[in-house]
Amino acid sequence: MTEEKTILLTQEAYDTLKAELAHREGEYRDEITERIATARAEGDLSENGGYQAAREEQSKNEGRINELTVKLRNAKIVEAPKAGTVGNGSLVTIELAGSEMTYVLGARDIAVATHYDVLSPESPIGAAILGAKTGDTVSYKAPNGREISVTIKDAKPLN
């Protein structure tokens, strides 16, 4: 059995995933079951495209339910650090190669609750900026081996 990894989420991301799970376990599951029953009533299942499509959709829904259940069971709500310090759940504006970009630092699952792109704290750039303060310049080694400098322009809690 594989070890399950802790998922760091903001409260907003946790609530969004929990609402999706409730929808998929309730209303959406019932809708798919109804479509299967309707298609089954049409007769010959071997050549019934509607039946096959509904069964496939049911399978995908159950897989997503399992995925969400595991994520929520292993979720840890993160409190972003105070303004000025980069941490999980921070909205960070960086300057990289003369361009300013804004990201959320955290697990990709945080993306469900924000329109910002997400940087993983485990990525080279995410690991480099984690713990940095506004005004700091840090560097990281890119996958191609180049050393790249990043300046923290702003860091504040996402929420």
TrEMBL record:
<dbReference type="InterPro" id="IPR028624">
    <property type="entry name" value="Tscrpt_elong_fac_GreA/B"/>
</dbReference>
<dbReference type="InterPro" id="IPR036953">
    <property type="entry name" value="GreA/GreB_C_sf"/>
</dbReference>
<comment type="function">
    <text>Necessary for efficient RNA polymerase transcription elongation past template-encoded arresting sites. The arresting sites in DNA have the property of trapping a certain fraction of elongating RNA polymerases that pass through, resulting in locked ternary complexes. Cleavage of the nascent transcript by cleavage factors such as GreA or GreB allows the resumption of elongation from the new 3'terminus. GreA releases sequences of 2 to 3 nucleotides.</text>
</comment>
<keyword id="KW-0648">Protein biosynthesis</keyword>
<dbReference type="GO" id="GO:0003746">
    <property type="term" value="F:translation elongation factor activity"/>
</dbReference>
<keyword id="KW-0805">Transcription regulation</keyword>
<protein>
    <recommendedName>
        <fullName>Transcription elongation factor GreA</fullName>
    </recommendedName>
</protein>
<dbReference type="GO" id="GO:0032784">
    <property type="term" value="P:regulation of DNA-templated transcription elongation"/>
</dbReference>
<dbReference type="GO" id="GO:0006354">
    <property type="term" value="P:DNA-templated transcription elongation"/>
</dbReference>
<keyword id="KW-0804">Transcription</keyword>
<keyword id="KW-0238">DNA-binding</keyword>
<feature type="domain" description="Transcription elongation factor GreA/GreB N-terminal">
    <location>
        <begin position="7"/>
        <end position="77"/>
    </location>
</feature>
<dbReference type="Pfam" id="PF01272">
    <property type="entry name" value="GreA_GreB"/>
</dbReference>
<dbReference type="GO" id="GO:0070063">
    <property type="term" value="F:RNA polymerase binding"/>
</dbReference>
<dbReference type="InterPro" id="IPR036805">
    <property type="entry name" value="Tscrpt_elong_fac_GreA/B_N_sf"/>
</dbReference>
<dbReference type="InterPro" id="IPR001437">
    <property type="entry name" value="Tscrpt_elong_fac_GreA/B_C"/>
</dbReference>
<keyword id="KW-0251">Elongation factor</keyword>
<comment type="similarity">
    <text>Belongs to the GreA/GreB family.</text>
</comment>
<dbReference type="InterPro" id="IPR022691">
    <property type="entry name" value="Tscrpt_elong_fac_GreA/B_N"/>
</dbReference>
<dbReference type="InterPro" id="IPR018151">
    <property type="entry name" value="TF_GreA/GreB_CS"/>
</dbReference>
<dbReference type="Pfam" id="PF03449">
    <property type="entry name" value="GreA_GreB_N"/>
</dbReference>
<dbReference type="GO" id="GO:0003677">
    <property type="term" value="F:DNA binding"/>
</dbReference>
<feature type="domain" description="Transcription elongation factor GreA/GreB C-terminal">
    <location>
        <begin position="83"/>
        <end position="156"/>
    </location>
</feature>
<feature type="region of interest" description="Disordered">
    <location>
        <begin position="39"/>
        <end position="62"/>
    </location>
</feature>
<dbReference type="InterPro" id="IPR023459">
    <property type="entry name" value="Tscrpt_elong_fac_GreA/B_fam"/>
</dbReference>
